[in-house]
Amino acid sequence: MSTEMTDTPHYSETLEIEGMTCASCVGRVEKALKSVEGVESAHVNLATEKAVIYAHQPLDRATLIKAVEKAGYEVEALQPIELTIEGMSCASCVGRVEKALKSVEGVESAHVNLATEKATIQASSSVTRDSLIQAVTKAGFEAKSVHQTTESFQDKKNIELEKLKKDLILSVLLTLPVFILEMGSHLIPAFHTFMMDNIGQQNSWLMQFFLTTVALIFPGRRFFKKGIPSLFRLAPDMNSLVAVGTLAAYLYSVVATFFPSVLPQGTVNVYYEAAAVIIKAKAKGRTSLAIQHLVGMQPKVARIQLNNQVIEVPIAEVQTGTIVEIRPGERIPVDGEVIHGQSFIDESMITGEPMPVEKTIGSTVVGGTINQSGSLNIKATSVGSSSVLSQIIRMVEQAQGSKLPIQALVDKITMWFVPVVMGLSLLTFLTWFIFGPEPALTFSLVNAVAVLIIACPCAMGLATPTSIMVGTGRGAEMGVLFRKGEALQLLKETKVVAVDKTGTLTEGKPVLTDLHVLEGFEYNAVLSLMAAVESKSEHPIARAIVQAAIDKELILSPIADFKSVTGYGIEAKVSEHLVHIGADRYMEKLSLNPNVFSQFSDRLGEEGKTPLYVAIDQKLAAIIAVADPIKESTFAAIEALHQLGLKVAMITGDNRHTAQAIAKKLGIDEVIAEVLPEGKIEAVKKLKNQYGKLAYVGDGINDAPALAEADIGLAIGTGTDVAIEAADVVLMSGNLKGVPNAIALSKATITNIRENLFWAFVYNAALIPIAAGVLYPQFGLLLSPVFAAGAMALSSIFVLGNALRLKRFKAPLAII
Predict the structure, then answer these.
(1) Are 377 and 341 in contact (CB under 8 A)?
(2) CA–CA gap between residue 240 and residue 421 (Å, rounded)
(3) Nearest Cα residue to 453 out of 284, 152, 238, 683
(4) How far is CA 538 from the centre of its chain?
(5) DSSP-assigned beta bridge partners for residue 577
(6) Cα separations in angstroms, 387 against 345, 380, 720, 730
(7) Distances from the Cα of 365 to the Cα of 311, 345, 349, 371, angstroms
(8) Which of 346, 411, 500, 699 is catalytic?
(9) Is the C-alpha dihedral spanning 461, 764, 218, 236 positive or negative?
């Protein structure tokens, strides 16, 4: 009894189980969960469809889910919840919001992005938005549900930016005279003489007092409103550093101005310029423009047909099935199908390809793309949040809000950064006050304030998310959509790229690639006869031959006496001509010698193509080959991957001879052929063990298991199908060139992040000691709070500017 009491499991996990129908289901689920290493007990309730698992150590939720799924049941996915967070100013704020959210029972994970000001929470269905909002409010921040559209969020950010601009202008107008009055006197002796003779020191101080007070009350009040309450909650943030540093400099100056007798002899100085310039340095706006370009592609109105009239309506009122009219030069308002007209449409915003695409009746069009020459009528097929553009925006937002593994260390440091800086500031004050030269109070105050001001957790907090935002945004412009931000880091570590053949390396449908006729026969006549015979067959080879004839606008004559000869080929009569089509053995059976085509058959064999022969009226007429042609872009893409130092492997269900021929032609390093769909997972595992981190490229449907098994899955999109759940990255153009482009962008983004982090950490590590006065004993140098404020602002500006360089990233391969 006592053993059970002391051995009570401390950890529990709750899963919501779907698919249970009886008590035996309960038993099977419990047995599956108990088989997981570390699980002490599992209790499954059929009525509530919940399983509660207990253990002595934290459990891996993914392992538990896998065990349940292996038993034949499904686990309800964690509920994703998005909140907009207001009031964050630095990385330590991010840590506190995440900690508050994770403290809510049922929350599995919480990721907060300082740049996008959004929190993404994975939680069980029992967790309510209100409980999360309450937790954030208790931590001293404001949270709201993301019910508003991206446009209204952007409008809100624009209003905030305008307000910040006005505050910045006001603070410049107020602080510039203060800076000139005080620092000008120190730097230019003639100016000091002029001031003393014409204004006087006391009057100068009174003018500085008035201007600085106005600066603190109006543009500076935002820092006190947020920073002071954070101090009382014992959770100081960047606003707290600014508020304390500013108040210290300001109050000391007020005493020196109005009550100079209170201060020790030789310490009567004012630091209004420090207080004012510190506020100016922080009165700057921050806004996310990464997806604004995408949002701007959404037309506000649509021209629809209603009751035999054409009227303009807001885009939100367009419903599925509505007939929409599009004129030349207009953006397509919704996804749809062309029912009337013909035009060329610029789809570069979706695919990254600059060449316009022809659209005729039956073609699909995507909202946000640009109609060029003709007028179109389309029937709306996807509107609102289900449209392609909305899905793209959602993907980009999710990627921008995610955290990379590299961020874990940063989060741990920034959580403690502000309290440590405040402690260092206090230590600096005491050290100078006790051991410093006279006037000790002045030295103590100036150096303590400088330490508070120069410390910049903003730079550390912005280092990763800003690069992710710009990198994923640039990727979207290139037709590379990162569904998960983590893929940005994992792609950089890729050692081998495995590709599916059909539809990835090749066009995905057989075409007539070769047709050589003997003397006495005419090319189009032979093709017409062949196509007429093959028109009765549904075989892919037959369809390719028929399509070749259609492309040449040849007339297909009626056929008679069609016969299929099993294992050999087919025959039929076409316009009184007897036509035989089949393999070499069929020609030999007809007493015809196919060796006259040996030169061509040998070449086709080397290319991995199987030759077929055509006989007309008992005479050998032609040799043909039907194959799935390699995409033109594939050659350059494979070469670019090799230049990036990567191995390339092909996984295909095709026969080994054909696969080897294609691999030789493309310079592919390794071939795994004759693989069944379920065998692709084992092939991926084998390559991962052999080479390391693996990226798999497939079409996102048949290749879903392999995409999921790979370290990074890249799905070749079709330009419209973007909801590919198994992939980490979607290549919208359907072009393999997107793979080296995505990898190159990953390398550039991670390099950019490392540069930002290096600067942010080195900046703080180097300048905080200088601000504390370590150079004074040997060199007599001190860092003024004014210059500390400027340096602090520059650190954030550097990080933001460096991240924005990614906007100019040039893809190694142009998508054309």
Answers:
(1) yes
(2) 11
(3) 238
(4) 42
(5) 574
(6) 17, 10, 9, 16
(7) 21, 8, 12, 10
(8) 500
(9) positive
Residue 369 neighbours by CB under 8 Å, 6+ apart? 331, 332, 345, 346, 347, 349, 350
- Helix, strand, coil % in the chain, rounded to nearest 5: 50, 20, 30
Q: Which pair of tokens denotes residue 236? A: 């100081």
Has residue 522 got a pLDDT over 90?
yes
Given a contact cutoff of 8 angstroms between Cβ atoms, the answer to whether 142 and 286 are in contact is no
Find, among 241, 772, 274, 250, the residue nearest to 459 by Cα: 241
Contact criterion met (CB below 8 Å) for 768 and 454: yes
CB 628 within 8 A of CB 647: no
Question: H-helix or E-strand containing 747?
Answer: helix 738-772
- 757 alpha-carbon distance from chain centroid: 20
| Secondary element (H or E) of residue 118 | strand 118-123
The H helix count followed by the E strand count for the chain is 29, 30
Residue whose entry in the numeric block shows the structure tokens 């929350």: 107
Assess contact for 499 and 736: CB atoms under 8 A: yes
C-alpha–C-alpha distance, residues 558 and 543, integer Å: 17
497 three-state secondary structure? strand
Tokens representing 814? 């142009």
Would you list the DSSP string of 779-814?
Answer: H-----HHHHHHHHHHHHHHHHHHHHGGGG---SS-
Q: Which two tokens stand for residue 305?
A: 């047909």
Give the DSSP letter of residue 773. T
How, if at all, do strands 729-731 and 712-716 pair?
parallel
What is the spatial distance between Cα 293 and Cα 481, in angstroms, rounded to a whole number?
Answer: 15
Amino acid making up residue 24: S
Angstrom distances, CA of residue 17 to CA of 21, 61, 71, 495, 656: 11, 13, 11, 38, 44
Rounded to 10 degrees, what is the CA torsion of 328, 329, 333, 338?
30
Q: What is the per-residue pLDDT for 721?
A: 47
| Backbone dihedral angles phi then psi of residue 532, each to the nearest 5 degrees | -60, -45
Distance, in Å, from the CA atom of 414 to the CA atom of 430, rounded to the nearest integer, reads 25
How would residue 720 be classed by pLDDT, with cut points 50, 70 and 90?
A: very low
Cross-strand bridge partners of residue 627: 511
Q: Which pairing describes strands 577-582 and 611-616: parallel, antiparallel, or unpaired?
A: antiparallel
Q: Are 277 and 790 in contact (CB under 8 A)?
A: yes
- 599 or 233: which leads in pLDDT: 599
pLDDT score of 430: 93
Which among 447, 441, 432, 431 is positioned nearest to 260, based on CA atoms?
441
Of 36, 155, 157, 151, the closest CA to residue 86 belongs to 157
Helix (H, G, I), strand (E, B) or coil at 407: helix
Element (H, E) at 549: helix 540-551
Residues 77-134: tens digit of each pLDDT: 666 788 888 877 666 678 788 889 999 887 888 888 776 678 888 887 667 888 899 9
Of residues 88 and 187, the one with the higher pLDDT is 88
Q: How far apart are CA 647 and CA 743, in angstroms?
A: 13
CA angle centred on 475, ends 472 and 479, rounded to 5°:
135
Q: How many residues does the chain have?
A: 816
CA distance 625 to 605: 10
User: pLDDT tens, 368-390?
Assistant: 888 888 889 999 988 876 777 77
Query: Could you give the CA distance from residue 312 to residue 325 in angstroms, rounded to a whole number?
Result: 10
Question: Is 500 an active-site residue?
Answer: yes
The strand ranges marked E within 199-241 are none
